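RECORD CONTENTS
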Amino acid sequence: MKRNVTIWTIIVFMMAFGFSQGQVFTEDFEDGDVSDWQQYRLDEEMIQAIDMSAAPQELLEGGTKVGYIQDADVTYTGVAILLTGDVLDADYTVESDVYVYENAPVSAYTGLVAYADSSRQGPFSHGYYVKLVADFDGNNRFRLYNNQLDMSTFGYTFHNSIDASIVDKTEGWHHMKVEVSTNWADSTVSYQCWYDEIDLGTFVDDSDYHTYSGHPGVFAFQQDADGLAGYFDNFTVAANGGSSNIDRVENRPVSMTLKQNYPNPFNPSTTISFDIHESGEAALRVFNVKGELVRTLASGQLQSGSYELMWDGSDSQGQSVAAGAYVVVLSRGNEQLSRSMLMLK
């Protein structure tokens, strides 16, 4: 990829994580169970299933419950992000009925999140996500952008302002959808966006530090003393039809294994393969000989299966590491496996 954009690349080989073809996650909040949802930051307020009557407006065919998020204590300056799925999910479509605000007194908007990974280190902040939001507080636009804000220039590494003149901007319930696809041929990521079934366009992120996978979720923000109350219903995530790079392994591994990287020694990249025999929290990290963390290659809920990732020899800042010995460590619960690797220049 041009301009050293390949910060980390996952080569999918007989994998069993994420939204595989045909897999669908739906949430209508009717049973009140939100256990499948996760906080982007561990001390955020959790998503809630509340009575439809508590929403500003009733959603037709929305049942009796809706999802509700809010940064009520303004721990994160009014930003609320709740997620589902796995950090290694890729090539999926996320959609939901979203309560959209118009002409809020201060900057405020709601929308959807894709390819979120709180463990990723971007150039201007820790963690990464892309959101599509309806920004109808005077700008009358949609915004598709990441959270990598450079405070010196107030610019993002990926940002699109989308004209909203062709849509109904009336405050109330509207349907939002994003299809996100990792393009392995050129290492870019595409986002196709819809609002009330109107195609808003497809936008390609070829910027430095963008992610190649991540959680889907929901987003709400208000820049004042109280975070915006975000309301969501009929939330769905499904693999993109026929284009998923993720395939399920029918034979589950019988133990956790970490294979020797190949090639080894290597320059500039090497492939790391491992097996997970039971689903759960797992991580694959690279350390230097001093025991210092160099790079987190994968972290999150992994389903049982076989995985293959490529490390491009860069650290968490996207800088090429020095020649020398490194250790790759696979950890899951109390289990831990490691392999030595040698980087040549």
Q: What stands out?
A: The domain at 17-239 is CATH 2.60.120.560 (Jelly Rolls). The chain has two domains: 17-239, 257-343. Confidence is low (pLDDT under 50) at residues 1-18, 242-250. Residues 23 and 284 are 25 Å apart (CA to CA).
